[in-house]
């Protein structure tokens, strides 16, 4: 199964292409903004930026220009909406998953979609040689995404992502935290490390006393 993403607008709709009989079809993703895109075997045409109940979803099986939502529910701990749709033409059913696209603004001004994989990749380098497994990294990436999404803005500066990493990484592994902080905060001397170590000790003391 392949998936493609078109990053424009603010909402993404992913069609799983799984019919009632359990037959897996090629899936696609597209933005539910005022545009139509053909990706893989299906068409999606959204009538509004919100998509959802009012969006026009072309059937990925027969390409009938309409579908009916038969069920909607939250997914991914409220970060997405999963909709079960039925095609009035061929009778087959398929599922769409709608999520808001969070854009990260880099120092150059270029924007790119937030990526848990990039968070994990950056933190993994800081964790080299440490007893930190993939499950812990995945959980940290989830915590970072939850933090930046909680800000409620569709765009967030890249340095805010780094700041969101520091807290959970400090709790996960102090050595990895120091490595990451030294790059994020551009340490240039031993004194920078000493100040950060003192801050770590103070934080640890507060946690112990609490």
TL;DR?
The protein has helices spanning 116-126, 134-150, 158-172, 174-184, 190-209, and strands spanning 11-15, 28-31, 36-39, 42-45, 56-57, 68-75, 80-86, 93-100, 103-105, 111-113, 155-157.
Features:
210 residues, alpha+beta, 2 domains, five-stranded antiparallel sheet, three-stranded antiparallel sheet, 5 helices, 35% helix, elongated, disordered N terminus
Can you put this structure into words, describing what you see?
With 210 residues, the protein is of the alpha+beta class. The protein folds into 2 domains: 11-100, no CATH class; 103-209. Helices cover 35% and strands 24% of the residues. It has helices spanning 116-126, 134-150, 158-172, 174-184, 190-209; strands at residues 11-15, 28-31, 36-39, 42-45, 56-57, 68-75, 80-86, 93-100, 103-105, 111-113, 155-157. The strands form 3 sheets. It has a 5-stranded antiparallel beta sheet with strand order 2-1-8-7-6, with no helix packed on it. Strand 9 and strand 10 (111-113) form a beta hairpin. Helix 1 crosses helix 2 (134-150), helix 2 (134-150) crosses helix 3 (158-172) and helix 3 runs antiparallel to helix 4. It is elongated.
SSE blueprint and pairings:
Layout: E1 11-15, E2 28-31, E3 36-39, E4 42-45, E5 56-57, E6 68-75, E7 80-86, E8 93-100, E9 103-105, E10 111-113, H1 116-126, H2 134-150, E11 155-157, H3 158-172, H4 174-184, H5 190-209
Parallel strand pairs: 9-11
Antiparallel strand pairs: 1-2, 1-8, 3-4, 4-5, 6-7, 7-8, 9-10
